[in-house]
Every structure is written in structure tokens, then in C-alpha cells.
Amino acid sequence: MYAVVRKVSKGIPRADFLIGAVPGAGQVGKLAVDHLIVELRADLVAEIYTPAFPPQIYIQSDGVAYMPRFQIYHARAGSKSALLFTGPAQLENGEASYEIIDSVLEMAKDAGVAEVYSLAAYILGKEPTERLVHGTATRPELLERLRLAGVRTMDGGEINGMNGLIFAMASLKDMDGICLLGETAGYYVDALSSKEVLKSLAKLSGIEVDYSRLDSLAAEAEKAIKAMMEEISKKEEASRDTRPGRMDYIS
Amino acid sequence: MYAVVRKVSKGIPRADFLIGAVPGAGQVGKLAVDHLIVELRADLVAEIYTPAFPPQIYIQSDGVAYMPRFQIYHARAGSKSALLFTGPAQLENGEASYEIIDSVLEMAKDAGVAEVYSLAAYILGKEPTERLVHGTATRPELLERLRLAGVRTMDGGEINGMNGLIFAMASLKDMDGICLLGETAGYYVDALSSKEVLKSLAKLSGIEVDYSRLDSLAAEAEKAIKAMMEEISKKEEASRDTRPGRMDYIS
Amino acid sequence: MYAVVRKVSKGIPRADFLIGAVPGAGQVGKLAVDHLIVELRADLVAEIYTPAFPPQIYIQSDGVAYMPRFQIYHARAGSKSALLFTGPAQLENGEASYEIIDSVLEMAKDAGVAEVYSLAAYILGKEPTERLVHGTATRPELLERLRLAGVRTMDGGEINGMNGLIFAMASLKDMDGICLLGETAGYYVDALSSKEVLKSLAKLSGIEVDYSRLDSLAAEAEKAIKAMMEEISKKEEASRDTRPGRMDYIS
Amino acid sequence: MYAVVRKVSKGIPRADFLIGAVPGAGQVGKLAVDHLIVELRADLVAEIYTPAFPPQIYIQSDGVAYMPRFQIYHARAGSKSALLFTGPAQLENGEASYEIIDSVLEMAKDAGVAEVYSLAAYILGKEPTERLVHGTATRPELLERLRLAGVRTMDGGEINGMNGLIFAMASLKDMDGICLLGETAGYYVDALSSKEVLKSLAKLSGIEVDYSRLDSLAAEAEKAIKAMMEEISKKEEASRDTRPGRMDYIS
């Protein structure tokens, strides 16, 4: 038993969608789901503890200890509602990954969810120019909807870890599964990619939120990266200046 | 729980045999079962998902995502019927291997199967001349039937992985188990070996199919191998021609 | 199933607290719980065997063989009562660690326990001057009680292994969890640190015992360490005396 | 579930003792149990299959395939009766080891067994002179019986693997557990050590058999070892004779 579900609210409220992500490249999916949780003032409805996390306890800045756990929130957005699934890390244990996602999907099914989204990263390995959103799904009919929403469908490849399982295992419970992958360099936290993914999600699900917090996050990240780059180039210049004109010794 | 069985049809139809193989050397068994599935226009009746596969999702060329899984088909061949078991890969997890096969055999038992065949490779490590079929079984009486069908019985050795478990574990459920192993070099996909195995299976079970598709597959493979060999020998010749007549240095 | 519980007494008597520790740095927690077991003349009420220990049997000096196991004792101290949990070693298997602690907490819950303490070490990596006691808990309200008892609350960090799980998992069963960590160098058994932890525990729980046995233990340890240090410095002096006055060669 | 028990006979007959061993150093215990099975014409009553064995099938010299498994036999010896447990190998998986032994002991308990013996090796690392039998047990009272039977009780050490679990876990089911360990060099199969262990077992349990087959086995082994030693010393002599009197080069 890898999934120990603890319901926080009395019963899980009805929901149209399950939207989930755990940390991955560029934190694209995780940041997007966290943004929805904050912007939609979502309520924590359940926690999932698992012995697949290392036996380790963390102490918060206020002194209280906590155990790592996955969380399921419930949110309303206009006439729509969604369960939001997130967690602190991927699990190394593959079997546990399957079981955690199975229990989340079971909960979603019980709540009336018919469509499951997982949000993830499409790693470019270089600075993206447009931050396109790619997508895949569990049925051909869903791909047409993705294309109409401006999402690029794929013709190969694989998705690793829990972000792949979330939407793909949905089909085993007769729910539709869609995965949206935002283009990102992969080597820095990319709030702009999260924003593009959320914009595609909005077109598909009707769940719309304000993105200004993601914009500020991206601006901050850009500033931090710029400062870091300047620091690096200053150091390189300095090291050029102090380099001896002549090599008197070999170190 | 390593075996998550998902019945695709309503109930598993009655069957005389279970015939199974997962990928192994030369793809001998896998190719043979796949051939039966196509030629007998077999119906998918069940899928077996397992957390023993790495948590990874694959995207097909049409854009649809799928999870790796084992499959069970049902086919009729004249007055005979069979369940056909296959899958995308061996499992690294031994315990899961046992459990998957146990669930397949349970399903076969429920469908009335009394005889279980697994199809596999007999690795020669060199080009085979005759492509004999070797065999082993769970009862001495079955060996006599194998010999009458032209199958060479063995006097030692071991069979690794799920292809061994399929027929050997049959005896734990009071079914007969037979393994047919086709001679093959082991380092290329060998459709001719699959054909020989299927011919032995036909003599034993009465399930006969047309083999021309396997012949074409073998012809294509032969052409591809020949082309590759010529390419290699051309390159070797070319490299001989450009070699300096005199060695001026030692690299 | 990693936890095989064997009740030694008929039923587990009622208790106010669960106090637990398994071996860790400086043996601070383990020594403290062992001290309580002896001083309070606690009764063994249950043992927990687990296949997560290596399959190994130990032979005592009296010739009797035993299996490694966790133990739960029951003790009365004035108007208070407690279950005391201890064991021979941390488990390498994280999943088993969770399961063992879960079964201990279940037993505690059934016995009416409302407050769970785990005793552990706060590693300084150098000789401590004051041997302060640090603490964390599962609710902010508990931290105030800790501060009033002179325990330093923390603002970060992590607690590894079963000593972290004991108190943190208590909250999953609606019990309060408190962890007391005694400052210690970390590289020798530290009975004085255990004493300080027990003094803090006494202020919080009202369970008071005589500490003279821990004082003698500390005095013995100090004597042993001193003797070892003198031995080392003697050897160093001796090696200085026999060192050649002049270096005739470089080795 | 690591233990898949398959009863071969209808019900397990009543028994006074369980006597077990799996392969270990010098095959001392395994050989002893196998000897009892043959000499007492024991009946196979149950088999235990386990996914903890690697997924591998073996082919016998008669062509029949079989799966590795543990076996439980039943034997009568005068007024006494015993279950005899043996298997082809130790399991690498500790958890599975516990579970297999648990299921064997459960079966023994159901059959009325009150005393469990495991037979093992006491490794000397050099040629033994007397081949003493050492012993340990789960209760101090049993040690007195061991001493009266000429068995040397121990004052420390550990017993690894399933041979330790067999007798030690007996106490968890309220049966007595005794382990008899025969002195052996450890680097060759030692039928004489098995004989000594069986002689001690006879004194303790009243189960007596003829040992001449073990004597012949030991004589054969001795002859084989002697022949091997002579071969080695001949080769050494020969290599001395052909060694050049003068070294003309350094290789």
C-alpha cells in the first residue's frame, strides 16, 4: 500500500476536471497548477501520504514539523470546477507512482470528473522563441480539439514519470486524458511557459485566471538570470585582465 | 498487485489452448504469436497493465498516447480455438513476471484451456542450417507427443524469463505446458525460425495458418542484411585502398 | 506486511503518552528510552518482528538464540502512564519504517494515548557546552508549550529515520506529536544529553525519574574517552621521540 | 505473497517434529535432511513455489521442465514422525525468506509439531579434527537437553539465512526451536559432518537412521579430493622440472 489517502474536507465536492502536475523540467507544470490553486483560492480536500518518500521529516520556518505529501485541492472557476493535484517531488519508486495516481484518479472519478489534464514541459534544450504548447491525448477525437485550441499534436516521443501517468491512466477508468506540454529551455524555472500552458488549458476547459503573477515571476527570474550572466561575464573579463602576458611557469 | 487486468470484451470466450510469447532472442516467439493474431484475425479480449513497467507513456505516430501493456487475444482456427498472449517486453521485476503469468493462466483456466504453449528461441550463436525445433514439457507423456511431431526433446538447460514461466506455471493450475524453441542465430530477427515453430505447433494443436507473410518478412530481412554486409565489405575495401603504403608514424 | 505484532501481555493497558526512540547519533534517544524502561520498571507488552531486518539470528551469551525485534513497554509514573517504544536499529527499508511506526501508533491510539514524543539527537559535530534541548511539533500551539519548558524551537532542518516518523505520523491519527532533540557531539555515546532530554520531557509530561544511572554512565564514558586520549597522545609522543633528527631521504 | 503453497497429498499428516535445512556451507544441513528423506522413504506432502526465485525454468535429463521450489516431506521413524523441509537454494530476498519459513511453520503447527530443528554448518575454515556438533535453541531449558546429548552450546555469534529463521521463528508460533550446527571446513561437501549432526538429532528426537550411505558419500568425496590434490602436486612438480635453470630474459 503506497497511497495513504487522508480526506481533509467532508467528502470531495463534484468536479468537471482533474488538473495535475508534479515537479519536472522548468517546473512548468508544477508552477501552473500552483498558480491555479492560488488564483482560484482552491480548498485543500485531501492529502496523500506515501512510504515511497524517504523516511524524512521537514521543519517549517515557524517551527512546525511536516511530512512530505501529495495534495488535492478543489476549485470553482465560473460555471466550471476542478480538482487540482500536485506534490513536492517525483517518486523514484515506479510502482508507488502508479498507485498514487490510481488513487487520485479514483477520487476524481468519484467526484464526477470526465476529463483529466496533466501539465508538463516540452524540453527544447535551448532558449525557446515562441513557447508553443504541444499536446497528446488518450483518444484520436481529443487531438482534433487540441488542434482547434492551437495546441501542436505530436507524432512520437515519450513522457516520463507521474505527469505521464496522470492523463494516460485516466483511460483505464473511462475518463479522457489530455497532456499539455509547454516549450521550455529546461534549465531554468519558466513561468512564461506555465502561462502558455494555462492559456491552452483555458481554451480547452473554460477555466480562465489572471496571469499577472506568473508575469512578475518571469520578470524576476529574468532579472536574476541577467544579473547572474553579468556577474559571470565580469568575472571572465577580470580574469582576462589579470592573466599574465607571459607564462613563467606551468601549474 | 502487479497485474491490473482489464477485460476488453464481455467475458473471455472458451478456448482449447493458450499460446504465448514475449520478446526474446531473434523475436522468434513474439513474431510467431503476432503472426497468429493477424492471420487468425484474433480479437483483443483483455489487457494487463502493470506498475512493473517503468512509469513511461509513449506517443503513437497518430498523436495518441498509450501505456505499455500485455495483451490477450482470442482466435478460432477451424474447430479449434486459442487465447494468444503477448507483450511489448520482458519485465525486469521477477516477482511481477510471476504475477502477470499467473493472472494469464488463471484467465486461460477459466476459459477451459487444458494445454498451454510458449514459443521461444533456441539460440545457436551462429547461422542455423536446418532451423530445428526443440521442445520441453511439464509431463513425460507430452514429450512423446513432441517427438512424434518431429520436435527434438532436450536433456538439460534452462529457459529464462516469462516465456519459461508461461508453460511451466501451467502445471500449477493442472494444465499441460509445452515449450517450443526454434533454432536461431540469436543476433537478428528470424521469421523463418518463427515459421518452423508455428509448423510444429500446427502438428501438435491442429492450428494451421498461411506462412507467406513470414516468408516475405524473412526475405526482406535477408535483403536488408545482405545490403548491410555489402556496405560493410565495401567500406573495408575502401579503407584498405586509402591506407598509406608506408607507415610514417605510429598513432 | 512489514509489521508482525506479537502481544506479550493480555491487552495493552491504557496510557497517556507514547515515548519512543531507535538508535541514532550519540544514542541520545535510545539511551533515554532505555533509562525510562529500567527506572520505571516498565513491563514488556508487545514485540514487533519484521522481515525488513536481514534474515539473521543472534545468539546471546547464555546460549539462547533470538531474532531482532522492536519492543513496546508500559510504565506508570505517579498519576501518569506511558507506552515506551524502542528497537535495536534503524531499518534500511523506508516503506517498512513507515509501516512499523504506523502499527505502533495504532496501538498507542487504541491505548488512549493523546501525545506522542520522540527523543533524538541534535548533532553539533563538536563538543557541546550546554547540551541544550531543541524541539519541534505537529501543531503551532505545542511549540508554545515547548518554549515554556525551556526547549528551543527550530526554524528549519530535517529529521531522518524512524525517530522523525514516530512523532510526525502521530498527527495522521489525530494525536499530538513532539520531538525533543538533545545537543550532542555526535561521535560518542552521550548519556548527559539523554539526561537533558529526559528533564525536558519531565517538564512537559510530568514523568520524572532518577538520573543518577545516566550520570554514572556519562562518568564512565568520560573516563574511557580520557584514557583513550592519553593513550593516543602517549603514542604520538613516542613516535616523535623515535623520529630521526635529520631527514636523509624523502619517502 | 512470496509463498505459494501447493499441497501434494490430501492433508498434511500429524508429525512430532519439523526438521529443515536449505543449502549452506559444506552442504551439511541439506545433505542431512536429504539423507533422512531417502532413508525414511519420506512422502512429498507439499511444495512451496515463490516469485522470489529468479524467473527461470530448468530442464531435467529426461526432458521434463520444472520450476525451482521448496519441498515438505512426511516421514515415520518408529513411533516418531517428522515433516522434512528442504529447498534448492537460499533466497536473496530477505522478506521472502521470512514468508516462506512462516508458511512452513504454519503447516508444521497445524500438523501438531511441537519441536523444530534446523540443521546447519559450523564453519571452521580449516580441516576439522573431531567434527563436534554445536547448538542453540529458543529457550534456556532446551540448552540443558542439548548438553546432555553431547551438543556444545554457544555463547555468541549469528546464523544467517533461512537455516536460522527455521528454528528461531518457531518460537513466534509457540513451538520450541533447536539448531544443530556440524563442524566443517566449509570449502567442500562434508557428509561426515552431516552424519554427526544426524547422530545428535537422533539422541534428541529418537529418529534414528542408517548412516552407511553418508559414509560412502564421504569416502567418495575423500577419494576425489585426494585425486585432485595428487593431480595438483604432480603438475607443480612437472612445472618445477621444466623451469629453465637460467633466466635469459625477463617477461
TrEMBL record, chains A, B, C, D:
<dbReference type="InterPro" id="IPR038389">
    <property type="entry name" value="PSMG2_sf"/>
</dbReference>
<dbReference type="InterPro" id="IPR019151">
    <property type="entry name" value="Proteasome_assmbl_chaperone_2"/>
</dbReference>
<dbReference type="Pfam" id="PF09754">
    <property type="entry name" value="PAC2"/>
</dbReference>
<keyword id="KW-0175">Coiled coil</keyword>
<feature type="coiled-coil region">
    <location>
        <begin position="211"/>
        <end position="238"/>
    </location>
</feature>
<protein>
    <submittedName>
        <fullName>COG2047: Uncharacterized protein</fullName>
    </submittedName>
</protein>
